[in-house]
Amino acid sequence: MVFKDKQVISTVHGADPRKLSEVVKRLAAEADSHGSGGFGETSAANPGWLGASLPRGYDDVTDQVDVRGLDLLNSDSSLGDARTLFNRSKPSALVSGREHTDLGGSERRIDWVESDTDEQLMLYIPFQSTLRVHTLQITSLPPKNTDQEADDAPVRPKTIHLYTNRAHVLGFEEAEDLVATQTIALQPQDWDGATSTAKIELRFVKFQKVSSLVLFVSDGYGEGEKVRIDRVKIIGEKGEKRELGKLEKIGDEAGE
Q1: CA–CA dist 137, 201 (Å, integer)
Q2: Helix and strand tally (H, E) in the chain?
Q3: Are 181 and 209 in contact (CB under 8 A)?
Q4: In a designed cystine with 35, which of 46, 63, 69, 172 is the match (CB 3.0 to 4.6 A)?
């Protein structure tokens, strides 16, 4: 028996070389055409699902995220964690065509993050190497049809503040007192209708030697008090490998 997504998709009875060969060829063709979305695996040749096209001359460098150092503040602990955001597979809401409003479903796959007490999220992203970051891709798939009250229904991020080369995650009050490297105000038209992904082009000159990134979502669209994010992709160029555990802030005065 051949399983996919916990379901039997093909059965071969007995030792039939011809049928076994057909099954293997079909699976190989599916893997080639759908990449990681079919089996949840990736390779160097196929780095995984992307919600938007890549800018010319730049690559998906999300594999440079140091997942061991990720930190996420004010997230709902009953849902996904920081690592969920960098899952290379296609978001489950796009795969199934449902937004998973059935909280009792035994097959419910939680692969997104939502804020907890209000619409703010603070994400700390350290990198394994120094990057030149050109673009961020943010995917957000709040449910379209829900019985939740307006205040409880998750919404998409609206205002995002970015801070580079911090040694650790920022507190919310601390972030509000700092000048962001860049602030992005997303508009409804920025979200792709098919993939629910916003492609955020950065001021490239300010993101040339990035060893860490803090992403602060300060508010969301609509009346909802919870923000939902399904995926974050980092697009740019890889630089020199850094020695993990020795992250330094670039541009600060000595003694600060």
Answers
A1: 9
A2: 4, 13
A3: no
A4: 46
DSSP per position, 157-189: EEEEEEEES-SSPPPHHHHHHSPPSEEEE--GG
Q: Which of 32, 226, 251 is nearest to 142 (CA)?
A: 226
Contact 182, 243 (CB under 8 A): no
Q: Encoding tokens for residue 39?
A: 């089996």
Q: What is the pLDDT of residue 147?
A: 59
Answer for the pair 141, 196: CB distance below 8 angstroms, yes or no. Answer: yes
Instruction: Report CA-CA distances (Å) from 124 to 61, 110, 204, 217.
Output: 16, 21, 20, 12
Percentage of residues in the chain having pLDDT higher than 70: 68
Parallel/antiparallel/unpaired status of strands 154-155 and 226-229: parallel
Q: Find the DSSP H helices in 40-105.
A: 92-96
Confidence check: pLDDT of 244 > 70: no
pTM: 0.74
Rounded Cα–Cα distance for residues 230 and 213 (Å): 18
Whole-number Cα distances in Å, 222 to 122, 130, 132, 226: 20, 37, 33, 10
In this predicted structure, what is the pLDDT of residue 14? Answer: 64
Residue carrying the six token digits 């955001």: 85
